Amino acid sequence: MNSASTIFETRCLSSLSKVFGDTELLDSKINSGTALWNEVYSFQVAYRSNSLLRYLNVSVESELEPYVTVRSVGLSPSDMPTFAQSDDDYIRKTPGMYPDILYPLEEGVHAVPDQWRAVWVTVALPVKAQVNCGEKAAAYAIKLAFADNSGNRLGEEQFTLEVLPAELPAQQLLHTEWFHTDCIATQYEVDVFSEEHWALIEKYVNNAARHGVNLLLTPLFTPPLDTAVGSERPTVQLIGVERTGENKYSFSFDKLERWIAMCQRAGVENYEFSHLFTQWGAAHAPKIVADVDGEEKRIFGWETDAAGEAYVAFLNQFLPELVAFIHKHGLEKHVFFHVSDEPALAHQENYRKASEILKAHLGAFTFLDALSDFEFYKQGLVDVPIPSNDHIEPFIEQQVEPLWTYYCCGQYIEVSNRFFSMPSYRNRVIGTQLYKFDVKGFLHWGFNFWYSQYSTKQIDPFRVTDADCGFPSGDAFVVYPGSDGPLDSLRWEVFYEGLQDMRALQLLEQLAGREKALEVLEQDLAEPITFKQYPRSIDWLLQARNRINAAIAEALA
Fold first, then answer.
1. How far apart, in whole angstroms, are the C-alpha atoms of residue 426 and residue 436?
2. According to the CATH classification, is domain 8-170 in 3.20.20.70?
3. Sheet harboring 96-104: ordered strands across?
4. What pTM did the predictor assign?
């Protein structure tokens, strides 16, 4: 309180709370937690004033201050938070303003009268080798204070983070969030693969890598994803093509070489080459442009029969050179191919033909495709099927190896997902499920899809968060286009916390065995965890992670 008339309130909350401006805080106050070295730990401080206070300074006092970042939790609009059908595990289903975007504290924060708002506190703990932490747990106080522009302290909270004498192991899960290079060019109004574009791409790749993405969608040709039939997305083609005669071509790999060097700088070592046939049926070629007599022209697209003579002749020339490139750079174990996204049984003949064309040259490499019909996989049409998390049970029962999963807008009943309208525990719980079922890979289609559904037009992601009422808010992107690069969402941070839970369970398994890790995870649960059955509780998830950490410490003692 800075005067008789101003009341300023604060409350420490976990990262799993969502603070809305138009409701009271319902979640318990949480002022402590545990973490491992090499982990990113987050919590929030909610605040409210009964009068307007602008440009408040937020300061941090802690031994961990060099590793602490504070951001403001902004409210993002949602016209369509859910589909017509949904389950009961949503915070709310009405249009409005939802806590999501994380803004840097460039000019402080505002306290809007009688509205709860929050700041997001991130502690990016270093590896043990960078600190003199010893072999005992250490408790660190993190004090966060609010002051007005005259320096008057309005309120403060203290959070105690106990860091255990163990280090989170490296991520083993292959994780891809489809990276839409064209959306970056469109949003920032830069020419595709200009120096400005390359600089922006690298910032977004770095962000993805920091959040556990280690397999990056690589646009050999413009990816034929979420594109209206007969239309096209901006050209983002890494392979240079020149038509030298009838059905004769030469190829340049210079841009692909630069792309891989950029990824390696960011720590991304695996490359998911874009689909070589159209989505939902594998009936056509993707958009491909070439130099034809000195002029850039589209030579393949929706009008091209996938198994037609012209496209097959093209692939028969291109793919051997791509294979040579892979061998030259030692990428044999780091490249993954697609045929067509989301094929159904009705598409099996097209898919079979397309697959045979590719595997004549690429049979030594792994093919991945999202699909949810087990019968499709049973027929041997795809090496590594990626079923959605609401259709994964048959793949688990049949012990499919390696097991992958994905979710998108269609997974909104019972299972984990990350819509604005869902509680954050429903986002983070995926990490425990990935661990329990030994999932080797996770795919999501929307890292930065800033177009309307079917890519018919550009949208402003600060105002339109549902792909122009195409998908519930939160499905199409996890980062926002800041003026100089990506701005995170709290959904993106929480998802990464889930990946860290998975890695902590893997460490416990290394130290005490898988049976012990599962016992600690599912302690006192009436029903075992599945992809559809899990505790619907912030407290359970936080307590489970604390139990895992305590068991790690005990195993090390």
1. 16
2. no
3. 8-14, 40-49, 117-124, 68-78, 96-104
4. 0.97
* 8 Å CB contact between 312 and 357: yes
Q: What is the average pLDDT value for the chain, to the nearest integer? A: 96
Report the half-sphere exposure of 292 (CA within 13 A, side-chain side): 11
Query: pLDDT band for position 381 (50/70/90)?
Result: confident
Helices and strands: H and E segment counts in the chain = 12, 24
**Cα–Cα distance measured from residue 507 to residue 20, given in angstroms and rounded to the nearest whole number:** 36
pLDDT of residue 131: 83
- In order of 125, 369, 396, 432, the CA distances from 273 in angstroms are 33, 12, 26, 29
Q: Structural domain boundaries of the chain?
A: 8-170
Output DSSP code: residue 305: B
CA distance 517 to 37: 19
Asked if 358 and 369 touch (Cβ cutoff 8 Å), the reply is no
Place of tokens 């050999």: 220
In 10 A of CB 49, how many CB atoms? 24
Q: Sheet containing 335-337: give its strands across.
A: 215-218, 270-273, 335-337, 366-370, 384-386
Burial code (b: 16+ CB inside 10 Å, e: under 16) for 21-43 equals beeebebeebeebbbbbbbbbbb
Res 135 pLDDT > 80: no
- Burial class from Cβ neighbours inside 10 Å (0-12, 13-18, 19+) for residue 44 reads buried
Q: How far is Cα 357 from Cα 37, in angstroms, rounded to an integer? A: 48
Report the residue count for the chain. Answer: 557
Mean pLDDT, to the nearest integer, of 340-352?
86
H helices within 87-194, ranges in order? 181-188
Close Cβ partners of 305 (under 8 Å, ≥ 6 residues apart): 283, 284, 285, 311
HEC profile for 179-210? CCHHHHHHHHCCCCCCHHHHHHHHHHHHHHHH
Burial label for 435, CB within 10 Å (0-12, 13-18, 19+), is: buried
- The Cα–Cα gap between 157 and 12 comes to 7
- Please state, in angstroms and rounded to a whole number, the distance separating the CA atoms of residues 253 and 426: 42
Which residues neighbour 449 within 8 Å (Cβ) at sequence distance 6 or greater?
A: 178, 180, 183, 226, 467, 476, 477
Distance CA 431, CA 503 (A): 8
Q: How many of the other CB atoms lie within 10 Å of CB of 225?
A: 21
d(CA 55, CA 110): 5
Q: Is the peptide bond before 402 cis (omega within 30 degrees of 0)?
A: yes
DSSP lists the bridge partners of residue 97 as 77
Nearest to 502 by CA among 457, 544, 446: 544
**Among candidate residues 489, 486, 551, 539, the one with its CA nearest the CA of residue 187:** 486
Terminal-residue alpha carbon distance, the chain: 46
pLDDT category at 4 given cuts 50, 70, 90 is: low
Nearest to 475 by CA among 548, 523, 410: 410
